[in-house]
Predict the structure of Coiled-coil domain-containing protein 106.
Amino acid sequence: MAALQEFRRSVSMKVAFDRVGVDRNTISRTAAIAELSLAAPEVFHALPPWDEKEETLAHYAHRCRQAMDDTIRAKIKTMKTKGDLLPIVSK
């Protein structure tokens, strides 16, 4: 949330990420976790929790992406347009 709040005050995502001390690639690669938790909390909470001893954060983000259906993706896109989520575009 700190990155989103800073982005709203800044002129760019780069400036916002620099101010909060987070690399853009880190945000980009793990954005699916935050997006799913905000756009579909019931789906997010239904996933097995992340266990840092058994799974990398990147793999957990991948599981979050896999849990998204078209409806959730559409909601995330709308939330990004409204400024409720960072406008990160996955490649």
Remarks:
- The two ends are 22 Å apart (CA to CA).
- The chain is about 70% helix and 0% strand.
- The CA atoms of residues 11 and 17 lie 11 Å apart.
- The helical segments are 2-9, 13-20, 24-39, 41-46, 57-67, 70-82.
